[in-house]
């Protein structure tokens, strides 16, 4: 790539420290392909983990529904890394002031019981299910730094760790119900604000996991036992602007709660 991943990662670290608005940068920085973008992401995440003294808890997958792709003007899933110190339990409270603009995405999380490698072929849903230990309702926290979605480009988003700023986990459940049929309902201060279904994520959330396994294999790594995978939002991103209590219920899996403090 023409751009230097180390310099671009350093720039991202500084932009987050200063809380500057997200601006697409890939073309100007010489990030010309998905390979380039994920190379920057790896260096950015490496620096974050070194600075914070933490490891990776797993991965997020974004833009797995038509609604989310239309919202962001992109046509493919994206992946990012979830840092271990950014994993919260249901009932967590987060402050609006700690983010330029916080977004909430309502998902199905899976925890792997064993390593999952595609070995150059497409994984079946049964193979993914066999590797999954348990599933949970979960909320992804994103930090989009006030991005203009009309001007968004996939390469800049990916390089910025696909905007992951943490996750909030409900209780893991096994065995689990039919995830494709599971209905998601999202409430803010007791009022229903959106709903979706597990099938909205690539037809089944385990298709999302299979996509991630192939993506990681292409980059010389793999999903490991114990990894948590956020499979993608079942509804469009919500952007809190005031103190609010969110509750996300997922049929057959329970609920997860998050409070936003202004």
Question: How would you sum up this structure, described in words?
Answer:
The chain has helices at residues 5-18, 26-29, 34-52, 66-72, 125-131, 154-159, 205-218; strands at residues 56-62, 78-83, 87-89, 92-95, 102-112, 132-143, 164-169, 183-188, 191-197, 228-233, 244-250, 254-261. By secondary structure, the protein is α+β, with helices and mostly antiparallel strands. The chain has a single domain (56-261), classed as Fumarylacetoacetase-like, C-terminal domain (Fumarylacetoacetate hydrolase, domain 2), CATH 3.90.850.10. The strands form 2 sheets. The chain has a 7-stranded mixed β-sheet. Strands 4-12-11-8-9 form a 5-stranded mixed β-sheet, with no helix packed on it. A hairpin with a 3-residue loop joins strand 11 (244-250) and strand 12 (254-261). Helix 1 packs across helix 3. The model has no long low-confidence stretch (mean pLDDT 94).
Q: How many DSSP H or I helices?
A: 7
Q: Sketch the major β-sheet.
A: 7 strands, mixed
CATH architecture: Alpha-Beta Complex
Helix fraction? 25-40%
**Average pLDDT metric:** 94
Read across the widest sheet, the strand sequence of neighbours is 2-1-10-5-6-7-3
- Helix/sheet category: alpha+beta
Order of helices and strands: HHHEHEEEEHEHEEEHEEE
**Which radius of gyration do the C-alpha atoms yield?**
17 Å
Poorly predicted ranges: none
- Strand-residue proportion: 25-35%
Shape: globular
- Tally of separate domains: 1
């Amino acid at each position: 790539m023409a751009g230097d991943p180390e310099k671009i990662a350093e720039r991202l670290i500084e932009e987050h420290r200063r809380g500057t608005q997200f601006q697409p940068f890939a073309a100007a920085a010489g990030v010309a392909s998905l390979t380039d973008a994920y190379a920057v992401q790896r260096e950015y995440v490496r620096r974050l983990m070194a600075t914070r003294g933490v490891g990776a808890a797993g991965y997020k997958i974004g833009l797995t529904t038509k609604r989310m792709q239309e919202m962001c003007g992109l046509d493919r899933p994206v992946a990012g890394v979830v840092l271990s110190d950014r994993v919260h339990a249901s009932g967590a409270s987060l402050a609006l002031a700690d983010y330029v603009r916080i977004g909430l995405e309502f998902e199905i999380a899976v925890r792997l019981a064993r390593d999952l490698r595609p070995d150059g072929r497409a994984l079946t849903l049964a193979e993914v299910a066999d590797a999954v230990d348990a599933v949970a309702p979960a909320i992804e926290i994103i930090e989009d730094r006030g991005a203009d979605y009309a001007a968004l480009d996939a390469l800049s988003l990916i390089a910025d760790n696909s905007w992951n700023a943490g996750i909030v986990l409900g209780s893991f459940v096994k065995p689990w119900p039919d995830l494709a049929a599971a209905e998601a309902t999202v409430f803010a201060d007791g009022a229903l604000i959106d709903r979706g279904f597990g099938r909205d994520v690539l037809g089944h959330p385990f298709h999302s996991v299979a996509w991630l396994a192939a993506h990681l294999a292409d980059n010389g790594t793999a999903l490991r036992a114990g990894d948590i995978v956020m499979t993608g939002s079942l509804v469009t991103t919500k952007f809190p602007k005031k103190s609010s209590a969110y509750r996300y219920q997922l049929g057959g899996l329970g609920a997860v709660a998050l409070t936003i403090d202004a």
